[in-house]
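To fix ideas, we give here one paired sequence and structure record:
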Amino acid sequence: MSLQLRITEELKASMVARNADRTGALRLIKSAVGYAQIEKKTDQLADPDIVAVLQKEAKKRHNSITEYAAAGREELADKERAELAIIEEFLPRALPADQLEALVQAVIAEIGATSKKDMGAVMKAASARAAGQADGKTLSTIVSRLLP
């Protein structure tokens, strides 16, 4: 089952169950995917494109949680945390740190990277291999630590 179809089915089930919070979050996800479809001028997005949209939405939620918590608005931060949990249901599971480090080391060896100047090429290749299973910040930290 494609990710887009799974989101639609989850939305229907949520509406039938009358779960307002979950329905709202799923509608936000469906809307973001719809905007991405319009942007790419296509009727159906591939799963990797949907994962990219979901990662962008998750990042927005992380930023909002930080801002709301800093402003003392815990009720809004809790709402964002609930939406983030629903978004994360559709994202692939993150790779453990040791596997991610091994992946980055393999990419560095394959590309022949020797210094921080090669970081862009390593990041591009590692991001492609991780395929949504690692965020850019974590990947960047590992790459910069491993490159001399």
About this structure: Residues 3-90 form a domain with the Hypothetical Protein Yqey; Chain: A; domain1 fold (CATH 1.10.1510.10). Residues 47-70 form the longest helix (24 residues). Helices lie at 3-16, 20-40, 47-70, 74-90, 97-111, 119-130, 136-146. The chain has two domains: 3-90, 97-146.
